[in-house]
Backbone:
């Protein structure tokens, strides 16, 4: 049993007019809750779909839960749960019928779980899907996803376009599932608050490339913010400039350190998550597209 | 014991949990032998990664404040008394603040100074 | 997945069933009306055509009614064919392209069933639905065709609604809509495309390539003078009007097989020139026009054919071959449908969602 949930090796996805993904390398360990952050069009959805087996890469290899990407056996599909950005559900079905549909098509289906969750959320089984609000539809879709007891959950912007209450409920549901056992979660999001609260692995994408992928704690510890012009201390050896915002007289520089750092070597400020993410997202722009 | 999470504070979530437990013990809201909420309960209160809760509880265990009893939960250690852990630290801190204010240093500058030292401490500890 | 497909298509199937039942009701009504008129015409006072002069007005009006009911069925048949094919195309389009169009395929393909299984389950329900819906209509229309006798049995439109061939044609339409729907994912365009392609393809195939399925028979005509009901024109005996005559004309003695395009005009022109010349010679009819009596026409035909070394012939498919042609056409359509199905089965693996 491998301890890498998802491994991408040099994955590229080209469409006729553009490259959605370029040379992506990724190795997400099991048990993590990983956030994928990036601007719209950075390739997040494409990458998640490749992980879920809906699309195959133009080149490169994908290994999910130990099985190479091309396999797509029913067994592999049973262990992976996917929730698309559009929350596809059969709109003319009633909620109860949608549950029945999921029961028919899934090997491991725990009937009680979604029923409990939906009644706790106040969603009746005889309501038509198209009559539910966006947030309720998202919850139904997630409930169904979770009821199959997947080992890996891939969620494409599950909380976008939801009001704060619905968002809270959705993330609650998700975290309850995670606390239940050995589940790996990969979700794309724009809300860095959510990332801080629930994620322990961060992936930043820009222009179809993965520009940062590591444990969240590690990322925050291995970056420093230097106030140039004010702070005359020497920079640690091996530090790499991620973002240089120096003006004529002063400015800020974001550094990535080569760890481990010996005590006293680096008293510089630690950046916030926002600062790190923005710096990496913008850094992607500087690179010359191949 | 009810936890809160301030996502904008820049303080890592697990540290916030640890600090809240320490404060609770200090102010006698948590007594020796009390049970801390289970990981599931905490997740039910605040939307947080269960691993974060595990980590906070482990840190508290490492500090000697709590002990995990298999199958039962996490409990505050018997020897813990309110104010005990931090009373001397609190006294020292109060002295320090008095001195800083006498020098005319603003609260914001104090916070920044404090943060810098705190961050540095994190690096040397790991 | 089968239950899901059935539940998804439920609305479409109900609408289709209503359309089919309406068509059947109309067909039954027309059929019975025709039966009644024919029966009335057979009995007194018209006795199937041998009526006294006194009843002429009544009987001729009755006969006119008979013919007009029959002749007016063209639009009904065309509408029926279009409706059947559209329903079959809608079923196929909603089954497959509908999932792509609505994005639900991204749900279906991430549940624990393979894409192949999804394709198989979905398509079985769609094809079965088409077959079940069209079969009662095919039965009703076969009875109808027998009663109304809209035209020769081999008229492409009549042939489609007669017998059982409507079922495989409809299933072929469904299969086409399903397989093409993997690529063309907009149901509206897909439905129109498939209905047009199948109807057009069927018509072209029946008109131009039917003789590949059933080899034609040859009928050598003997010209006879037979009184015609409406006047003194000659009649040449020919195959039964229910047969499919696709060539009638002169052939050189010794030649056989299906004539190529333009052949009839070549020989026809030569015969016409000979006849004009001979008419002038024998009966003093002006070269550029004139009227020959039926008996004179018979002489002209026989003399000119002999002079040019030709014989008068019909190439046709006899009525006895009706079921053979139905079976072969049906088998061909089912085979095409199966081929399309396999194409879809193979392609869903490779396509993206």
Residues:
């Amino acid at each position: 049993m491998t301890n890498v949930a998802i491994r991408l090796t040099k994955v590229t996805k080209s469409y006729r007019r553009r490259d959605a993904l370029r040379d992506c390398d990724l190795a997400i360990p099991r048990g993590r809750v990983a956030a994928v952050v990036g601007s719209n069009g950075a390739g997040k959805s494409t990458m998640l779909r490749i992980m879920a087996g809906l699309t195959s890469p133009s080149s490169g290899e994908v290994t999910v839960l130990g099985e190479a990407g091309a396999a797509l056996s029913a067994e592999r599909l049973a262990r992976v749960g996917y929730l698309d950005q559009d929350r596809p559900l059969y709109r003319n079905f009633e909620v109860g019928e949608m549950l029945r549909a999921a029961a028919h098509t899934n090997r491991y289906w725990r009937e009680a779980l979604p029923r409990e969750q939906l009644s706790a959320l106040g969603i009746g089984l005889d309501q038509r899907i198209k009559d539910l609000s966006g947030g309720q539809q998202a919850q139904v879709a997630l409930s169904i996803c979770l009821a199959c007891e997947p080992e890996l959950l891939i969620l494409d912007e599950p909380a976008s376009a939801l009001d704060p209450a619905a968002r809270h409920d959705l993330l609650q549901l998700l975290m309850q599932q995670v606390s239940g056992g050995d589940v790996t979660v990969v979700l794309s999001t724009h809300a860095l608050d959510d990332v801080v609260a629930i994620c322990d692995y961060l992936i930043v994408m820009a222009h179809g490339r993965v520009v940062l992928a590591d444990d969240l704690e590690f990322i925050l510890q291995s970056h420093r913010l230097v106030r140039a012009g004010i702070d005359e201390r020497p920079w640690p050896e091996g530090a790499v400039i991620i973002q240089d915002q120096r003006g004529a007289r002063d400015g800020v520089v974001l550094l990535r350190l080569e760890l481990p750092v010996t005590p006293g070597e680096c008293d510089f400020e630690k950046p916030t998550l926002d600062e790190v993410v923005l710096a990496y997202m913008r850094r992607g722009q500087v690179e010359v597209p191949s | 014991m009810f936890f809160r999470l301030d996502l904008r504070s820049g303080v890592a979530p697990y540290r916030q949990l640890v600090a809240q437990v320490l404060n609770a013990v200090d102010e006698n809201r948590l007594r020796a032998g009390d049970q801390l909420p289970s990981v599931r309960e905490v997740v039910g209160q605040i939307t947080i990664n269960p691993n974060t809760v595990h980590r906070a509880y482990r840190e508290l265990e490492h500090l000697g404040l709590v002990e995990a009893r298999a199958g039962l939960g996490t409990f505050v250690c018997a020897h813990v008394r309110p104010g005990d852990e931090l009373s001397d630290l609190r006294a020292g801190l109060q002295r320090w603040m008095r001195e800083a204010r006498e020098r005319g240093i603003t609260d914001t500058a104090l916070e920044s100074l404090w943060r810098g030292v705190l961050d540095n401490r994190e690096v040397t500890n790991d | 997945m089968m239950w899901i497909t059935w539940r998804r298509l439920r609305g479409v199937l109900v609408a289709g069933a209503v359309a089919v039942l309406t068509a059947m009701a109309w067909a039954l009504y027309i059929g019975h009306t025709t039966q009644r008129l024919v029966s009335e015409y057979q009995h007194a006072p018209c006795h199937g055509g041998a009526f006294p002069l006194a009843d002429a007005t009544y009987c001729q009006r009755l006969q006119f009614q008979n013919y007009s009911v029959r002749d007016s069925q063209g639009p009904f048949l065309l509408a029926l064919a279009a409706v059947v094919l559209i329903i079959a195309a809608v079923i196929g389009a909603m089954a497959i392209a509908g999932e792509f169009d609505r994005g639900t395929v991204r749900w279906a393909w991430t549940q624990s069933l393979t894409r192949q299984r999804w394709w198989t389950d979905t398509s079985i329900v769609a094809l079965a639905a088409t077959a079940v819906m069209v079969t009662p209509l095919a039965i009703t229309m076969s009875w109808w065709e027998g009663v109304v006798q809209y035209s020769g049995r081999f008229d492409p439109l009549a042939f489609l609604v007669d017998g059982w061939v409507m079922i495989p044609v409809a299933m072929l339409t469904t299969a086409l809509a399903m397989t093409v729907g993997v690529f063309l994912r907009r149901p509206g365009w897909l439905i129109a495309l498939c209905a047009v392609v199948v109807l057009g393809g069927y018509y072209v195939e029946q008109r131009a390539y039917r003789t590949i399925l059933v080899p034609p028979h040859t009928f050598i005509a003997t010209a006879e003078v037979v009184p015609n009901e409406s006047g003194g024109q000659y009649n040449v005996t020919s195959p039964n009007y229910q047969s499919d005559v696709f060539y009638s004309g002169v052939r050189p003695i010794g030649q056989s097989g299906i004539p190529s395009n333009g052949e009839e005009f070549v020989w026809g022109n030569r015969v016409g020139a000979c006849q004009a010349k001979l008419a002038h010679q024998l009966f003093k009819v002006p070269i550029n026009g004139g009227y020959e009596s039926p008996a004179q026409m018979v002489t002209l035909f026989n003399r000119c054919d002999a002079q040019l070394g030709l014989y008068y012939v019909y190439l046709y498919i006899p009525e006895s071959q009706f079921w053979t042609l139905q079976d072969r056409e049906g088998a061909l359509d089912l085979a095409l449908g199966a081929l399309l199905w396999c194409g879809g089965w193979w392609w869903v693996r490779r396509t993206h969602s």
Summary: The domain at 4-215 of chain A is CATH 3.40.50.300 (Rossmann fold). The longest strand of chain A covers residues 4-14. The radius of gyration of chain A is 21 Å.
